[in-house]
Write a structure and sequence with these properties.
Layout lengths: L1 H27 L7 E2 L3 E6 L4 E6 L3 E7 L12 E5 L4 E2 L5 E7 L2 E12 L2 H6 L7
Antiparallel strand pairs: 1-6, 2-3, 3-4, 4-8, 5-7, 7-8
Length: 130
């Protein structure tokens, strides 16, 4: 009987150590990518010609940082978001912004995309709020 109890206690200790190690590993892992479907983008605003904010649904805002200046994006009333290879955007490499200009559409490469926190959304200047 004592051998059986000892084996059970050893198994429980091993299980709890494995669970603790898994929890520590999960804490040290970076957060998952924040993605959205392009069809869910509702509105946009550009703070300048390198930064674009896109509202997705009611509560989410994503910041797009361009590789270079995207002419006329900061006063445009319409843009297009193109996602590659699918129809969702997770990183800058997934997205291209098409800005309409007097000389025709301009394709703007996106360097980075990130989801803003509620605090960052509230801190956006009025002109930059989508």
């Amino acid at each position: 009987m004592n051998a059986h109890v000892a084996a059970t206690v050893a198994a429980l200790l091993a299980l709890s150590a494995t669970g603790a190690a898994a929890a520590d590993a999960a804490k040290s892992r970076p957060a998952g990518r924040q993605c959205f479907w392009t069809r869910n983008a509702d509105s946009f605003a550009a703070a300048d010609n390198r930064t674009l904010y896109v509202r997705v649904g009611v509560r989410q805002v994503f910041e797009f940082e361009m590789f270079g200046p995207c002419q006329d994006i900061d006063w445009n009333q319409r843009i297009a978001l193109v996602s590659t290879p699918g129809s969702n955007i997770c990183t800058g490499m997934d997205a291209t912004v098409i800005s309409h200009s007097p000389i025709g559409p301009q394709r703007c490469a996106v360097r980075a995309v990130r989801k803003l926190t509620p605090e960052e959304i509230a801190a956006l200047p009025r002109r930059a709020r989508p």
